[in-house]
Write a structure and sequence with these properties.
The protein is mainly beta. The chain folds into two domains: 4-61; 80-167, Calycin beta-barrel core domain (Lipocalin), CATH 2.40.128.20. It has no helices and 14 strands. The chain has strands at 15-19, 22-27, 33-39, 45-51, 55-61, 80-87, 92-102, 105-111, 117-121, 123-125, 128-133, 138-144, 150-157, 160-167. The strands form two sheets. A nine-stranded antiparallel beta sheet has the order 9-8-7-6-14-13-12-11-10, with no helix packed on it. A hairpin with a 5-residue loop joins strand 8 (105-111) and strand 9. It is globular. The two termini are 28 Å apart. The relative contact order is 0.14.
């Protein structure tokens, strides 16, 4: 699932079922989101309701939109998978960042093994790395070590800042 206005793409669906003309989707990664809809007789629309704490009408139409995957470019010195633990004070959350250079610039996906994965842009200026993740209102700002073996920085979300260390 993609939430275009929030910049959240590739959000995994926990389940998808279609029985007769009834479609059901569950999206555990976004606070137990769900969608229930009915396919119209001409199969041009699905009329339904999105629920995530409250229910809202959401009617879907077929789209001619083609999703274009970013083409890889020459690898940079930070391409690869980085992992670390975010200590929020009340819990530790394991995070994986997969960073890749593409023709459009550095991109990445963050995955918390117990929650979700979503692609996002990455900004790099020298050793400074900035990773804004609009879908969850967060930003990671870090510094790449001289030996390229770690990125140390701060994860901010909703006014809370947590220090974390990512290892290559």
């Amino acid at each position: 699932m993609d939430s275009v206005d929030q910049g959240a793409n590739g959000i995994p669906l926990a389940s998808v079922t279609l029985k007769d003309s009834k479609l059901s989707l569950t999206v555990d990664a976004v606070q137990h989101g769900s969608y229930e809809g009915t396919l119209t007789a001409d199969a041009a629309q699905i009329k339904g309701t999105w629920s995530q704490g409250m229910s809202l009408e959401l009617n879907l139409e077929r789209s001619g939109l083609k999703v274009v995957e970013a083409k890889p470019a020459a690898a940079t010195d930070i391409d690869g998978t980085w992992q670390g633990a975010l200590d929020t004070g009340s819990m530790k959350l394991r995070l994986h960042y997969k960073i890749e250079n593409t023709e459009q610039g550095l991109t990445g996906k963050m995955q918390s093994p117990s929650t979700w994965t979503s692609p996002f842009p990455i900004t790099r200026s020298g050793a400074s790395i900035t990773i804004p993740i609009k879908a969850i209102g967060s930003t990671y700002e870090g510094k790449l070590s001289a030996d390229l073996g770690s990125i140390e920085g701060t994860f901010s979300q909703g006014g809370t800042r947590s220090r974390s260390l990512s290892s290559g």
